[in-house]
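User: Structure with inosinic acid, tokens only please.
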Amino acid sequence: MAIYFEEPSRTFNEYLLVPGYTSNHHIPENVTLATPLTKYRRGEEQPAISLQIPMISAIMQAVSDDNMAIALAREGGMSFIYGSQTIEDQAAMVARVKDYKAGFVTSDANLSPEMTLKDVIALRDTLGHSTMPVTEGGRAHGKLLGIVTSRDYRLSRMDTTEKVSSFMTPVEKMIVAPADTTLKTANDIIWEHKLNSLPVVDDQGCLLYLVFRKDYDSHKSNPQELLDTHKRYMVGAGINTRDYAQRVPALVEAGADVLCIDSSEGYSDWQKFTLQWIREHYGNTVKVGAGNVVDAEGFRFLADAGADFIKIGIGGGSICITREQKGIGRGQATATIEVARARDEYFKETGVYIPLCSDGGIVYDHHITLALAMGADFVMLGRYFARFDESPTNRVNVNGSYMKEYWGEGSARARNWQRYDLGGDKKGMTFEEGVDSYVPYAGSLHDNVAVTLAKVKSTMCNCGAVSIPELQEKAKLTVISSTSIIEGGAHDVVLKDKSNYGSSSI
Ligand code: IMP
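Assistant:
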């Protein structure tokens, strides 16, 4: 006979946290959001990888490329580079994150001495910055010949056909630093000589990087950065249950710190086979998450199959139409609560703590706190990150408002059919599980994450918790009625300015 779950499956919106005792120790400055990413023997060892903040970005074309990965690692979170691209392209994105030296910028505008002032102006207008190194042939890593900054030319006095070689500051008059210069030394040189930028060159005099005064400042203001033992940003990557024998080695070679099987439904043999293959070839040295599941049975299956972390969620994503199309899924809150219980039982039995990720359906900042209180160790967000400057999509003007594009991996646009693997030939895929959409442009990742986490920390203090495990232990959650949802927003007043209304979705 079919199994009926007695309780309706609920979403985050149907819950609130009831405050606990807040002592004078429970203040936001004392809250740590560090959280494990991979499984470990709690009480006996530390997790191989932890996050500084409980946020990872979704394995999606419209969300997680190398640029997003660098921006999020800078804040202490992690991106999983999307797998719905060729193995070579995905590995190159991973390598770009690992090669990125914080504060060391690869110049995107190199001039050749034969170019003219007109070219300089055109580049300045397209790129928005005015410091441009001059190299042999204008090559990215060509021999450094000089530099042009806005101080080297005056449009009103000069002919735009004038050659770069005639007005650049030649390399003989510049201060340059050798390849092994640390960021701290570079900054000392910048201050001592009152420079705005410092080129770093190899022993042949070829340009490697520029260090800017402003970047050093921003590096200093990100103490939470998620770095590996070589002080490189950490990055994850999505894999599928089809080409893992080729994709996994390429991603590992490129330096991916952790992998995640990207699938809409993870309680399947295909996930087990993928995990088995990784264990056979890499033992436990390659960390890999699996999912998505929405109940205890699915959790146990992936735990036994060896997953390092497990993702929860089917059908709750903002661009997701899986529930409509196929009638599978579960309210995200109910799924998180049940899977977290199964995880805690597994821990009691085995001593192994498997971190859980609540994936999709975060609409308000406080949904993150709810997910953590319900037992998730971190959350995966797509729509949230798609809205920022750092996401891979263009900012477009739609009827006077700035928007960013955001599309599902199961949409005809992404064509990530491997995500929906049920064996057989994917060419026959005849229906979509995701939509193509716009989301309101929201500015920089740094500013938005700061506000979101300030709210999370504040609520944690209300609940008497200064860490995520403490929140999970102490949280008191209540189901709310539909009328109390109305009571929870501004009501029975006429708003003066709706755009400033703080409880609108993020
Ligand atoms: P969001 O944060 O609510 O936008 O949800 C993002 C999550 O939706 C992702 O991490 C995926 O788990 C899921 N997702 C991505 N693309 C699709 C799709 O096309 N259909 C269904 N779910 C999707």
